[in-house]
Design goal:
The chain is an all-alpha fold. The protein is built from 21 helices and no strands. It starts with a helix and ends with a helix.
Amino acid sequence: MYALIAMAVALGLLVVLMHRGVKLGRAMVLASIALAVLLKVTPGVFWGAAVEEWRSKPLTQTTGYLLVTLTALVILVNIFGTAMKEVGVSQRLGPAIQGLFKSRRVALAAIPMMMGLLPTPGGIMLSAPMVRELGDHLGADRSRVAAINFLFRHQWETVWPLFPSVPLIQGMFGISAFALVSHNIAITIAGVLGGVIFLLVSAIPKDCDKKASRGQFKKNLQSFLGAIWPIAVVAGLYAGLDLPPAVGLLLALVAFLIFNKVPIEKWAGLFKSGFEPDFALLILGALLFKLNLQAGGAIESVVQFLDDINAPMHVVIFILPFMVAFLTGLTMATVAMTFPFLMGFIGTGVEAKVGLETLAFSGVICGLLLTPVHLCIVLSASYFECSLGRLVVRLLAPAVFVAAAGVLMALLAG
């Protein structure tokens, strides 16, 4: 019980720091230090846990390996976004997607979904202007259009390797990329289906699906492929060869710069402008939090407590990530805080019940869809000039679909 209280206090500190404007990375590090103090994890105990982890686990599951690869990933993603702007690719992507589709309803969803393949902080604003303009042209309610932009942009979070939570979960549970993606894709499918039914088909009439200009189809297709091919290469290397996303992205980034003839003397400036130290602190804080839970014996203690009170396993697996995601609005923090507790239920390696992991991740996504503290929801309500409460209500039905997908996967593969 004490371990749960310690975690709750550390989580509360994280939420307070975020509300006071402390950067996410610094807030996460401070919360992990607070947890170490509460669990009485001294430097010696922490070092012992790290050494034991290094001896007993495969390299790809160790904290050091995850720290290096995940930090490199989030920084490279930001650098790649900067490079896309530098060569003008990102500016052409939205109009190209809109021009490729005959259906404007499809374009309304496709613009944020395709641009969501490159996760960047506050990146929802990349697609917002185009989605708002198209939504206004169709006469759609602003809160509905904001919900469409938010929901479809975040459909890749459970399967796309450029989101650091995906390789983190793979490393924690010691499962293949294919196993993780093939199970979690159910969440993506359910989210898209819920969005199509409740946000697109039910409110935007079919007669708004007027044929978009296709005179520049070839140009639009070239612009789209010019932006998407490096990301597709990373995904292919990850799913097909289990190559760490950071390595794949570095290779794709170099190829992208060469292909677009960016002078090599500009490379250093691009890398420097895209580097954000707080990203590294966020990964560091999340992994420190996870290792402190292990070093302090909190995981075994909490699992035993939940077993003693006969808490329903499936309810715990869903609710715990949901609550933390709802309170923080952060995927990485939620995974680092809650998934270590769930490993006792889900298992690792060949014994992992990946369907239960999908149930846990569906809890994360539902919490992120419905929380008013998610940065992207706040930005959306402000930019689309709509009520935050009404925006969240719009997302309720798709969230139910996501939860149902998690439950279904738990029953079929758990």
